[in-house]
Amino acid sequence: MKLHEECGVFGVYDPAGNCARTAYYGLFALQHRGQEACGIAAINDRELSFHKDVGLVGETFSEQTLDRLNGTMAVGHVRYSTTGGARRENAQPLTLRYVKGTLALAHNGNLPHADELRTQFEYQGAIFQTTSDSELIAYAIAQARLRCPSVEEAVCRALEGLRGAWSLIVMSPRKLVAARDPWGFRPLCMGRRGEAVVFASESCALDAVGAKFERDLGPGEIVAVEDGQVRTVRDPVSKGSLCVFEYIYFARPDSVLCGQSVHEARRLAGRFLAQEHPVEADVVIGVPDSGLDAAMGYAEESGTPYGVGLVKNRYIGRTFITPGQGRREEAVRIKLGALKSCVEGRRVVMVDDSIVRGTTSRQLVTLLREAGAREVHLRSSAPPFVSPCWFGTDIPDKDQLIACRYSTEEIRERTGADSLGFLSLEALGRIAPRASCGFCRGCFTGEYPLTV
Length: 452
Description:
Elements: E1 7-13, H1 19-29, E2 37-44, E3 47-54, H2 57-60, H3 63-68, E4 73-79, E5 94-98, E6 101-110, H4 114-123, H5 134-145, H6 151-160, E7 165-171, E8 175-180, E9 189-193, E10 196-200, H7 203-208, E11 212-216, E12 222-226, E13 229-234, E14 241-243, H8 245-250, E15 256-257, E16 260-261, H9 262-276, E17 283-286, H10 292-302, E18 310-312, H11 325-335, E19 336-338, H12 340-343, E20 347-352, H13 359-370, E21 375-380, H14 402-405, H15 408-415, E22 419-422, H16 425-428, E23 438-440, H17 442-445
Parallel strand pairs: 14-23, 17-20, 20-21, 21-22
Antiparallel strand pairs: 1-4, 1-10, 2-3, 2-4, 5-6, 6-7, 7-8, 8-12, 9-10, 9-11, 12-13, 15-16, 18-19
């Protein structure tokens, strides 16, 4: 099993129009963050229109749909659910019409107290159309807007009453508002393309639409865009605790998060892994895609040649995107094949980004042995998972985490590897030396920045 991160968000203001198409290209760049559903909402002459559905970005939007959505503002979303199921009604952006007008909202994160909050709102008379916690945020903003003179102030008021993780883009008929939670669990950055202002979960989406990266939004920061003017509504409140797994797995390697290249962070993880868990081997290979950079780092540090031992089928998505463990396991052989000419008769170091339940690792070790590998040494560029995540990463309960049930030697036996090594917590703290933020490592330590 792989982990999943439930979504990516994108927002754009451009007086030249054609914002839906810009959002479309931005979502393509963020497709790795969620392949369950996607959507775009746009404002044209203060009228809201939208299109969303389950499926990939390229499958969901046609030329005719994008032309219909043309406008001067747009928000987009790619989704994989952590709260709420894989249903069409849970696709985002969420849109609502209320007494003050219309809103569209795209959310990346998770509210640990969603059930309690939903019950509270329902006793106040709320009727919800989805099972997503994002609708709770939309409802809170709509309620706050009744008492606030502007949508950005309503966002401030609503978020004060919430605890959890959110990178959020809200669009009204006149304004675009972007916000991060006070702990900064999920990334959000801002860029410009001429007169256009762009927000995205990762900088790779800015690159995809020709926007120049300007800065990351700080933890707790809220920014509003109106008529092209950018105004900070609320200043950052802390250094934050970005999910460290963004560097190990979630983000695209060409993204830069909080000043740190994701690619370089993964290569450093691989170097530290080689220092901590050396082994005599003939070739180092990575598990595509997020294990490749770490494998390069391992090879560089160890002096062992780097090779391509696993070939990815580019026409299906990440293994974790397939909901249901049985279907995930079936997808491994469909998605990855062993390159016999690279591994046959050789001692192989296989570097993967993480080991969760151990089922995927076992299948990959089997694939390599079937292709003729003489030895398979398994290395994880993340420490063992010991706790679930409450802030938007789909890490299962402890009883499903292999490191909570077995020792390292027992995990090695269950995966069939000749040796096994995890990155240490100490090394994990050194993989992002240029980052300007703090980190949440709760899934590896059981200690979280926010009490749940």
